[in-house]
Amino acid sequence: MREILIAGAISLVMSLFGTPILIRWLARHEYGQIIRDDGPSSHHTKRGTPTMGGLNIIFSSLLGFFISHIITRTSVSISALLVIGLVVSLGFVGFLDDWLKVAKQRSLGLTGWQKVAGQTLFAALFGGLGIHFADKNGLTPISLHLSTLRDTSLQLTPILVVIGVILMVSATSNGVNLTDGLDGLATGASVMTFLSFILIGVWEFGEGCAVTPGINCYQVRDPLDIAVLAASLAASCTGFLWWNASPAKIFMGDTGSLALGGAIAGIAATLRIELLLIPLGGLFVIITMSVIIQRVYFKASGGKRVFKMAPLQHHFELSGWGEVTIVLRFWIIAGLSVALGLGLFYAQWVSK
Predict the structure, then answer these.
(1) Which of 19, 140, 157, 11 is CA-nearest to residue 82?
(2) pLDDT tens, residue by residue, 265-295
(3) Would you give the end-to-end CA distance of the chain in angstroms?
(4) Count of CB atoms situated within 10 Å of the CB of 219
(5) Cis peptide leading into 50, omega within 30 of 0?
């Protein structure tokens, strides 16, 4: 358990004090945010704010994670390494997108299909590798069984598991990306989700079949090490939020949003709680659904809209809500969603 506290403390310090250094470096090289002309007019004041802050989120979380293992002299699990690989690879896709936006000085970087291709490739690698590397108990990082709030008895083929992982990673990374439209919104919501993963990972470890054998025990390969990684990510996002809160001094960019989305999906897969990801990432689901509803209705109705603008947070901006008000109320929704997810997780364990 010591690793969780050490990893969180180091990641928090590195993010809190490393982010202003990154801000100065990005500002000096004029790597600023490009703002869409068709968005809310209040966003035009954000033009030129340093972006690609996700670089420090990734760096701080990984530094805290690995140093905690060095200090406690514990080995790094294959499950955590696979999630880290997914985080870094999706962060790279996001970095390319951010870099092209800055280099070309326009709001479009990679095309939609290029992003999807990158997400699909790295998610497939994560899923394909995750069903290998069995430990002495025969447990792999990602289960071949259908996982909801835990593993079920229904076994899937490897190809179905990989396809499921691809869909989950793409949906989650795009969900965080769509949420990252207001100062601190996606960062704060991500912190809450990662904190829930810490609780679930520690619980699964304590109630694991290797520690507490029984009819209700959990068959998860490396839950405690995943909890350490979740703590690193939560702390890193918290430190970044200090500078990302309104008025933001830096944005995470696609570098951060795609990486965090990949982390959330990867952790859910390795903790074997895929279906629980819906309530735990409830805000991301709601915002993603607002975009889907807007596009479907627009095409079906011949140009009419459900919302003044999608994603949903911009609808409320155009309705006259202040940015801070929207962020705080959406954080409340995120917190309630996480509470619902944790309640469902515990209720499932109690009911056995």
Answers:
(1) 140
(2) 999 999 999 999 999 999 999 999 999 999 9
(3) 26
(4) 16
(5) no
pTM over 0.90: yes
Residues 126, 86 contacting (CB under 8 angstroms): yes
Tokens 């309705």 belong to which residue? 319
Residues of the chain with pLDDT under 70: 32-48, 105-107, 352
Token digits of residue 103: 């280099």
Which residues have CB under 8 Å from 56's CB, separation 6+? 14, 15, 18, 19, 22, 236, 240
Beta-carbon contacts of residue 190 (< 8 Å; ≥ 6 apart): 176, 233, 234, 237, 260, 264
Pairing of strands 145-147, 151-155: antiparallel
Q: Which two tokens stand for residue 34?
A: 């490009």
d(CA 164, CA 7): 30
Q: Which residue ranges make up each domain of the chain?
A: 2-351
C-alpha–C-alpha distance, residues 273 and 149, integer Å = 5
Q: Rounded to an integer, what distance in angstroms lies between the CA atom of residue 239 and that of residue 342?
A: 24
pLDDT for 160: 96
Give the helix/strand (H/E) hosting 238.
Answer: helix 223-244
CA dihedral 115, 116, 119, 125 (to 10 degrees): -130
> Can the peptide bond before residue 311 be classed as cis, meaning omega within 30 degrees of 0?
yes
Neighbours of 56 (CB within 10 A): 27
Helix, strand, coil share (%) of the chain residues, nearest 5 = 70, 5, 30
Degrees (nearest 5) of the Cα angle 89, 91, 93?
A: 75
Q: What is the pLDDT of residue 44?
A: 47
pLDDT digits (tens, 9 = 90+) for 150-201: 888 889 999 999 999 999 999 999 999 999 989 999 999 999 999 999 999 9
Look at residue 177 and give its three-state secondary structure: helix
**What number of other Cβ atoms are within 10 A of residue 161's Cβ?**
23
Express each pLDDT in 50-59 by its tens digit. 889 999 999 9
- Block residue for tokens 């947070």: 313
List Cα–Cα distances, 178 to 61, 129, 135, 246, 290, in angstroms: 22, 28, 37, 18, 10
Residue-level pLDDT at 152: 86
